[in-house]
Automatic annotation (TrEMBL):
GO molecular function: peptide transmembrane transporter activity
GO term, biological process aspect, one: peptide transport
Keywords: Signal
The protein, known as: ABC transporter substrate-binding protein
Localization, UniProt: Periplasm
The Solute-binding protein family domain, residue ranges: 107-528
Key word Repeat present: no
Listed Gene3D superfamilies: Dipeptide-binding Protein, Domain 3, Periplasmic binding protein-like II
One matching Pfam family: SBP_bac_5
Family: Belongs to the bacterial solute-binding protein 5 family.
Top-level taxon in the UniProt lineage: Bacteria
Length: 646
């Protein structure tokens, strides 16, 4: 069949042409001998490892890179924030999926799967895996591993009470069927034209991170008699479910990066776990399934290290001192740019463009499902959110905090994207404290002696904002300014600083009044990652977790008001659309409904950012897209990089 992929005006290739191009590229390696890193030679000679040709699949994925074939060896040094930054590991070494985006983010192509077919009505998707794929411990990766995920994890209510929405259509979860050892079918109850894009966008990792041969020992179905012995003396697990979850994590939470025994399909495997020291270390996966155009097994670089630092300022100092080979998160912002620019010579690095263009750099997220009944009533009053939006002087924030780099905006697609809507982007962004006061006088007219408004219960109405200093986006500084603007119209905001790990815990538990974060959905991921446009899924954006649970499963969570149901229904039509044209039209309708709800309050539309790379590191792509679960520097990943100084 011929199926177009949405999300970019350039993504117009059919499945047939995609497969033809990929198979032709892959065949380049067949007629020649494979190469491996010299660091593996002794292990092969001793018999500890099979020869490289026996470790690779019959048809390896062939990568064509920007600077050509690289050379083996070396250690890639980068950095990670000490608390709650496990996603930095995901971004650099964990983006191997059944299908993937091309590096320019214009096409979805086969990856772990070497062939994909889709039915004309976009209800059925069939994947043929590469023959001979292996986990990092050398055991085969087959359809049985995918079926283990589906039958024993995804469909197990104890392990997965909330189904990930990307595998649910019309309230019905996907049906996954084994065709043979290399072929698997995903079938949905109705059309799902967005499925391959969703699968390529990050959450698609779920079917391919559960090695059955290893994890079945922790599953009641396979080892009921042995579980008690495994639990004995275990301080973190009280039953088989918590034991299983301590060995792997569906969203790459710290448990995934703590278990050094967990086999993976990624280019590197950890040797030092995430939480146990002042650095994280990883070594090459000898069974990695990709090669370059001359048949050399990737990755080129043998080892990776992440220095765990608790302050972005320390990251900056390490970079300018030449102690890091690349860095991007937490320091790639306008605040640090001048210092980093001046430090290029001493640090032996240069700037690389990064297309980091989410829907908003700083978004106020009021908890619309907050337990407090007074706050719940006020937060769910759209006019309150509009008033608070008008109370904020966005341009002052941009000028003072972002050094003029940005534009006042709500959460909305970027101007360069086909989904951009100026009205959606600019609504309620005018700094107008007079209008804000007028609107608030109708909602909470009474004030206390200090001029702060009283809620319907007669008590001062206070919003406790949780703030973590992450991404180098100066959230504490922004919130200090927002706090003053809010006070000017009688709203009491109290700032509660925390680290990302604690904030993660709070939003998963629905414990926060409000917090500030960045919002995805600025470019092509707007189609697939709508968590800032509606309460969508259990991810790292929460402003109505109970409604999100209801959307995944109407028997759980909390039934939302009709206006929210309308937004969900509109997005269901986006997911169902088969053609690009229909999907674009449906997405515009959905975004209009989302904008009318004003679920969140955006502050600044971001400008492009940058990455810092050592001058000796090659095969780094300029203009890498990054947002949400399109994990930068994925989809190129670090297996491309090589050090010419080796």
């Amino acid at each position: 069949m011929s199926l177009h992929f949405a999300g970019s005006r350039l993504a117009k290739l059919t499945l047939a042409s995609l497969f033809g191009a990929l198979m032709a590229t892959s065949s380049l390696a067949w007629a020649q001998e494979y190469g491996q890193s010299p660091i593996l030679d002794a292990r092969v000679e001793s018999g500890e490892l099979p020869p490289v040709e026996d470790r690779l699949p019959a048809n390896p994925y062939v990568e064509t890179m920007v600077d050509g074939v690289g050379q083996y060896g070396g250690t890639l040094r980068t950095t990670i924030l000490a608390n709650g930054d496990h996603y930095n590991l995901t971004r650099t070494i964990a983006n191997e999926l059944l299908v993937r985006w091309t590096p320019d983010w214009t096409e979805v192509v086969p990856s772990l799967a070497e062939e994909v077919t889709a039915s004309d009505d976009a209800t059925t998707f069939t994947f043929k895996l590469r023959e001979g794929l292996k986990w990092s411990d050398g055991q085969p990766f087959t359809v049985d591993d995918i079926m283990f995920w589906y039958e024993d994890i995804f469909m197990n209510e104890a392990l997965t009470p909330d189904k990930n929405p990307i595998f649910v259509v019309g309230g019905e979860p996907v049906v996954v069927t084994k065709v043979d050892g290399q072929t698997v079918e995903f079938k949905f109850a109705s059309s799902y034209g967005l499925f391959l894009q969703q699968l390529a966008y990050g959450q698609g990792h779920l079917p391919v991170i559960y090695p059955k041969h290893y994890l079945s020992q922790f599953h009641e179905k396979y080892n009921a008699e042995g579980i008690p012995a495994l639990l004995q003396g275990n301080a973190t697990a009280s039953d088989w479910v918590s034991l299983f979850n301590s060995k792997v994590s569906v969203t790459f939470q710290p448990a995934y990066w703590q278990n050094l025994e967990l086999p993976t399909l990624n280019p590197y495997v950890l040797t030092v776990p995430y939480a146990d020291s002042d650095r994280v270390e990883a070594v090459r996966n000898p069974y990695y399934w990709k090669v370059d155009t001359e048949g050399n097994q990737l990755p080129y670089i043998d080892n990776m290290t992440w220095a765990k630092l608790d302050d972005p300022q320390l990251m900056l100092l390490r970079m300018t001192a030449g102690e890091l080979d690349f860095a991007f998160r937490h320091i790639n912002n306008s605040t640090f740019k001048s210092v980093l620019f001046d430090g290029q010579e001493t640090g032996n690095y240069h700037f690389v463009d990064v297309k980091d263009l989410p829907a908003n750099d700083a978004t106020l997220l009021l908890n619309l499902n907050v337990e407090d009944p007074v706050k719940n009533e006020i937060f769910n009053n759209k006019n309150f959110r509009i008033a608070l939006s008008h109370a904020i002087n966005r341009q002052d924030i941009i000028d003072l905090v972002y050094v003029g780099q940005g534009a006042p905006s709500q959460v909305a697609p970027q101007p360069e994207h086909e989904l951009y809507n100026e009205e959606m982007s600019t609504q309620y962004t005018e700094y107008n404290p007079e209008l804000a006061n007028q609107m608030l006088d109708e909602i909470m007219p009474e004030k206390d002696a200090q001029g702060f408004r009283l809620g319907p219960d007669g008590n001062r109405f206070t919003i406790n904002f949780m703030v973590a200093d992450v991404f180098g986006l100066s959230y504490p500084d922004i919130m200090s300014m927002v706090q003053q603007y809010a006070a000017d119209v009688g709203i009491d905001i109290q700032i509660r600083t925390t680290d990302r790990a604690r904030l993660n815990t709070m939003w998963y538990a629905n414990e926060q009044d409000a917090y500030i974060w960045n919002c995805v959905g600025g470019l092509s991921e707007a189609y697939t990652d709508v968590r800032c446009y509606i309460p969508f899924q259990k991810a790292d954006i929460f402003f109505a977790s109970k409604w999100s649970e209801w959307y995944s499963d109407p028997t759980t969570g909390e039934e939302p008001p009709q206006s929210v149901k309308n937004a969900y229904a509109a997005y269901d039509l986006v997911k169902a659309a088969v053609t690009d044209e229909d999907r674009l039209a449906r997405m515009k309708e959905f975004l209009a409904i989302s904008a009318d709800n004003l679920f969140t309050i955006g502050i600044s539309r971001p400008m492009p950012k940058y990455m810092l790379v050592n001058n000796d590191i090659k095969n780094v792509v300029q203009g890498i897209p990054i947002t949400g679960n399109l994990w930068h520097p994925a989809p190129t990943l670090t297996q491309w990089y090589f050090d010419r100084a080796q």
